Amino acid sequence: MDPAHVFVFAAMRYLYLKRKRKRRTWVHEINAARPTHGHFVTLYRPLRERDPVKFFNYMRMSIASFDELLSRVREPLTKRDSNMRAAIPPEEMLVITLRYLASGCSLKDLHYNFRIGRSTAGEIVRKVCQTMWETMKDQCLPKPTHKACLEIAAGFWERANFPNCLGAVDGKHVRIVKPPHSGSLYQNYKHYFSMGLLAVADANYSFVYVDVGSYGKDSDSTLFRNSTLWNEIESGSLNIP
């Protein structure tokens, strides 16, 4: 058969199958009900308007703290509506992310509770977390100054009679799903998969430094020696009195 005829027949078959194929809906009917049945409308708004105590329990923060946080991330999270769909507002994106962080629920739970796609939920959580870090890290976790170090040491002396202490250091295993092709790198001594978190707190239990992302197999001492804090101590770049 002439190659040109083969090409024509192949093209005709493709068009035929394409017409037969059932067209997928742009928005699933569950997600289409988001404006009326999603938790942002049915739970978040009523709690905000009528029950600040339960709002705190639901969001793990007061209404005032939520509004302050929203004011910091609203602009970078704002998106324009497209011709096909309306953008999810920053307030709803923040609620979705805070519920994920506060409850430890899955993306599937967010999908059913807030009536959004699972992939959309994952994108929202990543985007909001990245935005919060970029907009607030310098204020919430600034590099300690010489004066700040003296204040931290004074706090430990006043509350615990512990002299010359610049922070309490500890590590924490954050449970995760095993990353693909990672072998036993993330398997910790308790035999589950985790990511290492190293933190330093002052005498008032406030974080002054965090380092997250180490392998679950690493011990606390390894977490410390692999951290940026250790590197800065070794290089003498910290403002230690």
Notes on the structure:
The longest helix has 23 residues, at about 120-140. Helix 8 packs across helix 9. By secondary structure, this protein is mostly helical. The model has no long low-confidence stretch (mean pLDDT about 85). The N and C termini lie far apart (about 85 Å). The protein has two domains: about 30-135, no CATH class; about 145-235, no CATH class. It has twelve helices and three strands, in the order ααααααααααβββαα. Its main location: nucleus. This is DDE Tnp4 domain-containing protein. Keywords: Hydrolase, Metal-binding, Nuclease, Nucleus. Its cofactor is a divalent metal cation.
The helix-and-strand class reads mainly alpha
Beta strand % = 5-15%
Write down the overall mean pLDDT.
87
Looking at the structure, what is the overall shape? globular
Strand arrangement, major sheet: 1-2-3
InterPro entries: HARBI1-like, HARBI1_dom
Cofactor: a divalent metal cation
GO molecular function, one term: nuclease activity
Protein name: DDE Tnp4 domain-containing protein
Brief overview:
By secondary structure, this protein is mainly alpha-helical. Helix content is 56%, strand content 10%.
